[in-house]
Amino acid sequence: MKRIAAITMARNDAFFLKHWIAYYGAQLGKENLYIYLDGSDQPVPPAAGAATVIHCERIQGQVVSAEKRRLTHLSNVAAELLQRYDLVIGTDADEFLVVDPDLNETLASYLSKVDINVALSGLGMDVGQKMGEEKTIDENSSFLAQRSYAVLSSRYTKPVVLAKPVTWGSGFHRIKGHNFKIDKNLYLFHFGVFDYEMVMARFQDKDRMASGWERHMKKRARTITTVTEKKALEGEKILLLARIMQTVFRPVYALNKPSMGPFKWVVKIPEKFKRTMI
Questions:
Q1: Residue (of 200, 57, 62, 178) closest to 117 by Cα position
Q2: CA distance readout (Å), 112 to 103, 161, 238
Q3: In whole angstroms, what is the distance from residue 278 CA to residue 276 CA?
Q4: Angle formed by the axes of helices 222-229 and 213-220, nearest 10°
C-alpha cells in the first residue's frame, strides 16, 4: 500500500472540518491527516484525534491575494510531505474525493493501484439543494443521503492528488506548468453550497466579508438556483461524457484547466453514492 497523506487549511469552518476529519480519517487513518488552521484564534477540532493540527499566522488580505498565499503555503507543505509519503491529497474542508462505490475500494487501496505521474483529478460534482424538494441539511446524517443533485462542474475537477511536488493555483484548481488527468473512477464532491440556510449564514461571517468573499460566494451560490430550476440528467453515460468533454475542452485563459464549454449540466447523483461515508 502507498503511504498517503491528506491536507487542508480552514478558518471558521468547524462544521466541514468535523466531516473532513471523519471521512479522510476513515479512508487514510487520522495519523495521516494534516490540518492547518488559519489564525491562532481557531479552536482545535474536537475530533482531530491523531491528526496533526497546526496553527498558522493569519493570512490577511483580499480573497485573490490571500488565496495565492494560502495555496503557496499548502504546496510547500505537500512538497515536504512527499519526502515521506507516496501521495498527498489536498482539498478544501468541504471537498471529498470518492472512489466509485461499485469498486468496493477505499481511497487508499484504490490510489495504491493507480499509476500517477504528477497529479490526478476526480470528476467535479458541485452538490446543491433542490429547493422545495430537499430539506435543510441534518449534520448528523449522511450528506448524500439528503442531497440528490449536482452540477457537473469543471471548476471542481481539481488536481487534488499529487505524486510530485508542484505549485497549486488558487483553490487547488490547477497545477502550474503541468496538465491534468481525470481518473475514470474518482469523483470530487463539493458541498460548500449544498444548503441554502448555511450559505445565508456564511454571509454573516465578518472575516469572509472583510476579505472580499461576498461576490465570490454569491457566484458560487448560483448552484442552488441551477439545481432547483434545471431538469436533471440521469445515467452513468452522462458522467462518462462529462469526463471526455472536460478532457478535450480547455478555457483559453488557462489551457491546463478542464472546461465544460458552454454546457451547465445538472445530474441526479447515482444512488450508489448514498453508500459512501459522506
A1: 178
A2: 14, 12, 27
A3: 6
A4: 10
- Could you tell me the CATH number of the domain that includes residue 79? 3.90.550
pLDDT tens for 221-236 read: 789 999 999 999 998 8
* pTM of the predicted structure, to 2 decimals: 0.94
pLDDT reading at 210 higher than 90: no
Residues in the chain: 278
**Residue 131 DSSP code:** T
Q: What is the domain range of residue 242? A: 4-275
Closest CA to 97 of 6, 18, 29: 6
Beta strands in 2-49 (DSSP E): 4-10, 33-38
pLDDT tens for 67-109 read: 888 888 999 999 999 999 999 999 999 999 999 999 999 999 9
β pairing state of 119-128 and 182-190: parallel
Split into its structural domains, the chain has a count of 1
- Going by the DSSP 8-state scheme, the letter that residue 47 receives in this structure is T
Which parts of 85-215 are beta strand (E)? Answer: 87-90, 95-99, 119-128, 149-152, 161-162, 182-190
